[in-house]
Specification:
Layout lengths: L10 E4 L3 E3 L2 E8 L2 E8 L12 H18 L4 E8 L2 H21 L9 E5 L32 E7 L4 H12 L4 E7 L15 H8 L2 E8 L3 H5 L9 H16 L1 E6 L10 E3 L2 E3 L7 H13 L5 E4 L6 H12 L10 H4 L12 H13 L2 H8 L10 H8 L13 H18 L29 H9 L8
Parallel strand pairs: 1-5, 5-6, 7-8, 7-10, 8-9, 10-13
Antiparallel strand pairs: 1-3, 2-3, 3-4, 4-9, 11-12
Helix pairs in contact: 1-6, 3-8, 8-10, 10-11, 10-13
């Protein structure tokens, strides 16, 4: 994309959020245009009038990052929230983690990163009102540590319907770890309810766990209003972590669990001296950064990446060993999720291609075609995409896909299996013959959970004998 293609504005102003029943509403002003972002919580969520401002500002920030991507301002104002200078600095660095992709693709200079300004008051923020006109309640005097919900060593696992989070759910269930599950549906309001029909794996999850289902939707789509045509990188991680925190505070869960796999640490590019990584908020550096933030705020929660020491290919392989039919219910395509029909795979994007390769490597070509709907190795239009997924000299797609080495190994395995069966190779004919690196199948529990829970997780793993 050309430099300056995206629209710009002077200021995005976040106004005080408020509740309408179980709906949390975040008002914004983008210059003079009013925007409303809405989050619908289930009726069992009771803390609508005790939600901590720190949790609310995190959810507001997720939408701020998205708006900054769509219509980039010079300044962001969050004057309803007060914090010390170190926290202000933290948020002003955090925005880089989410806008780095936009700045690279559109060739913006880093010094154009929007500056976030908070209330200059030294007193802490107040809780949100129950209506736009209500007076906010008073808060204790210490900004740093005046909220300390009671938690235990239990888990709130975010599930997306994809490979890694489905593996994480099965893994934690088999290990009998205490906890519940959580998901964000981009649905409700103007978005309708088609989204929820795209995730059959959630039926399995609901049968075995309480699933907290949150709906997020704008009153009007900002991208359409401003005519934004760039590549989107919605800040789902930030939104999930803070929405999960609100539920974890009520339910007493210490661990906020996402299923970010090991490949999240691989960058896509380097731009003006800084690494650019589509999955930056999923990597180990960000997990550590966020947990340091929570600790400094005096909060008891911890961000855990349950698949931190696991590659995607290992998650698919282990699922195929436990119950291959689970793979039929996966939804790993971002594009098809938004389609108005019932499709779950677009068969045209990096995530579809990467997922197809992993499923075929762990099973066979017939099963992978059954799951995805097409033989993606036979589609000529995907040749360049496959190269970008595995070739070290090509730019990695800006999507949540595995390491290039991981993709190459999966493709080589698929080629080997097809040759043995005399099947058509398609694009696999150009894949070099390499020996599969079995270290990619290694699975181990994360180190930042209790040792007894790590032992339980390790005890239910099956050694892949035949891969």
């Amino acid at each position: 994309m050309a430099k300056g293609k995206s629209p710009t504005c002077s200021v995005i102003s976040s106004e005080t959020p408020y509740w309408q029943g179980s709906r949390l509403i975040f008002p914004f002003a983008i210059d003079r245009w009013k925007h409303f972002y809405q989050i619908d919580f289930p009726v069992e969520f009771k803390n609508t009038h005790q939600s901590h401002p720190f949790v609310l500002v995190g959810m507001a920030m997720a939408e701020i990052y998205r708006l900054c991507e769509i219509c980039t301002p010079e300044t962001v104002e969050v004057f309803w929230y007060s914090c010390l200078s170190w926290e202000s600095d933290w948020w002003n660095e955090d925005i880089y983690w989410y806008l780095q992709q936009k700045f690279y693709l559109e060739k913006w200079d880093w010094d154009r990163m929007p500056r976030i300004e908070f209330s200059p008051s030294s007193s802490p923020s107040s809780s949100p009102s129950s209506s736009p006109s209500s007076s906010p309640s008073s808060s204790p005097s210490s900004i740093e540590n005046y909220w300390s919900p009671s938690v235990r060593d239990s888990y709130l696992l975010a599930v997306s319907g994809g490979k890694e989070s489905t593996f994480a759910f099965e893994w934690m269930q088999r290990a009998n770890l205490p906890g519940e599950t959580f998901t964000l549906h981009h649905a409700g309001g103007i978005l309708g309810d088609n989204w929820q029909q795209k995730f059959p794996v959630f039926d399995r999850i609901r049968e075995r766990s309480h699933l907290w289902e949150i709906l997020t939707h704008p009153k009007e789509e900002a991208a359409e209003h401003f005519g934004y045509e760039g590549v989107r990188n919605d800040p789902t991680i930030t939104n999930a972590l803070f929405a999960m925190m609100a539920i974890a505070a009520q339910q007493g869960h210490k661990f906020l669990v996402l299923a970010n796999d090991k490949s999240s640490n691989e960058s896509n590019a380097t731009y003006q001296g800084r690494s650019v990584n589509h999955q930056s908020a999923k990597g180990t550096a960000y997990v550590e950064r966020f947990n340091n933030f929570l600790e400094r705020k005096g909060l008891p929660f911890r961000y855990v990446s349950i698949c931190q020491e696991v590659y995607s290919i290992a998650t698919v392989q282990q699922l195929s060993i436990w119950n291959k039919n689970i793979l039929n219910d996966l939804t790993s395509c971002n594009e098809a999720q938004w389609a108005p029909d019932s499709s779950r795979w677009c068969c045209d994007c990096p995530k579809c291609a990467f997922s197809f390769a992993l499923i075929e490597a762990a099973t066979d070509d017939n099963f992978a075609i059954q799951v995805v709907g097409k033989d993606l190795f036979s589609l000529q239009k995907l040749e360049e995409l496959w190269t970008r997924l595995f070739d070290s000299n090509a730019e990695k797609p800006f999507e949540c896909v595995g390491e290039k080495r991981e993709t190459l190994m999966a493709l080589a395995k698929c080629k080997e299996q097809r040759l043995k069966k005399g099947k058509s190779l398609g694009v696999l004919a150009a894949i070099p013959d390499v020996k599969f690196d079995r270290s990619l199948l290694s699975i181990s529990a994360p180190t930042n959970i209790p040792q007894t829970h790590r032992q339980k997780l390790d005890s239910v793993l099956t050694n892949p004998q035949t891969f």
